[in-house]
Amino acid sequence: MQHFTAHLHDEEGTAALGAALSRALVPGLAIHLHGDLGAGKTALTRALLHAAGHVGTVKSPTYTLSEPYSIELDGRAVGVIHFDLYRMGSPEEFLDAGFREDFNGDNICIVEWPEKADGVLPPPDLNVFLTVAGHGRDVELQASTALGNSCLQRLKFAPNM
Fold first, then answer.
1. Which residues are paired to 33 by β-bridges?
2. Which of 27, 94, 118, 140 gets the most CB atoms within 10 Å of its CB?
3. What is the pLDDT at residue 111?
4. Residue from 112, 98, 95, 107 nearest 41 by CA
């Protein structure tokens, strides 16, 4: 499986990676975002959604647990659901909320704090690991399925130098 690593020197680098990822999206993709508080998970998601054509506000779904968006890919409306599971008390809350139904092959699901739903969260196609490094971030993208692999093959991103 493919993987990609880079150092993002600043917030603009994170935004550029989000924009590059937006051009590699396909329906059904599940992306798990890993990193400490402040590592840039929401910033990356915000940049991805804006680059994909979402015009409105992109807020962290810390209290609502999920926020749905609609974008257009190849002339087709596609749902993007941004999950933030940080405040979940147990994996069963994920099931009780009916979130598994959103992972249906049509939506793109982006999940912050996936470890909060260990054992019940559908597996990712792509894992994104963000780590604060000085004033920037180190990022690693790991494909774990053929769909994730094809996403990384389409990714065109040169980190800021």
1. 112, 128
2. 94
3. 96
4. 112
